[in-house]
């Protein structure tokens, strides 16, 4: 089969690799019909090379058609259309029972002290082959695999794999609808959905992003948009009686470009031999924290900061005096996908499209054009907000 493989810093290529096979009774095999590039994939692309091996199959936002199931998978059968959560969880351990499948005790990667294994996401999370491929083996399909309808386009359902429940969890953690004003920092794919969900739940929502195309997309959905910087922060304060919003979601994470030194440190770690770089990143890594610090500064006293953007630094400094003085609540965590999907399924199937899932994808490319998609997404060129790869589409030859 053909699959997107990691080959080095800012290098991916589509290669022919062995077809996956059933390994356990709880597995399923699917033929992938759509698979998206996620902002978290850019962390592998840019920063987390020491935890990757050349040839790793990446990607964690797939859906498709069931080809084969193991003997213990009885809720789906060959021919069913399904969405695959990016978290690999058993559904029956103590953590899954508490609604925390991202902390699944069956698939925790204890070697690295991390939570549940993830599709296509480095040694830190199990090094499980990912979903940017023609076919995919789905571990623990007996719990995770979600059967969906056959009449609506893939893009109505695809984002149930990751970014839609991630955004829903972030808004839930932010305390909406109880909180009446919400600011979302970063209007990439997750930030777009956070803003729309907040608005759907009744909040007044502000969105901050330096990219005009992203602001324009959010504005179409009733979001009050502002550019990044002191003027934007000051304007939001003015519009919230000088207090700041009740809650702020940081939908940027370690992609934030606010710290030159942290960016240099990330790049240097990425060039060290893996055996040296891994402990540096695990025990001394420092993130670029501009977005998080902006969230802490902007939110009103007694408010809530919710993190949906991923941070990877083990030694990132936090302004604890400021946080304590402002009496803030801080919530975060890997998304518990299956805890939210039953709530979200009716919304993505609603003909009114209340969360605007039909207005998110800006680029659709054949799987063989994955390298182009990664470059567009990373650089935010050509108005790129979200890229979906189609393993079933023929590659278009480049023009001479």
From TrEMBL:
Residues covered by the Alcohol dehydrogenase-like C-terminal domain: 189-255
GO molecular function: oxidoreductase activity; zinc ion binding
Cofactor(s), by name: Zn(2+)
Signal peptide residue numbers: none
Boundaries of every Alcohol dehydrogenase-like N-terminal domain copy: 25-142
PROSITE patterns: ADH_ZINC
Keywords attached to this entry: Metal-binding, Oxidoreductase, Zinc
Pfam annotation, one family: ADH_zinc_N
Matches recorded under InterPro entries: ADH-like_C, ADH-like_N, ADH_Zn_CS, GroES-like_sf, NAD(P)-bd_dom_sf
Sequence similarity: Belongs to the zinc-containing alcohol dehydrogenase family.
Protein name: Glutathione-dependent formaldehyde dehydrogenase
Organism of origin: Brachybacterium vulturis
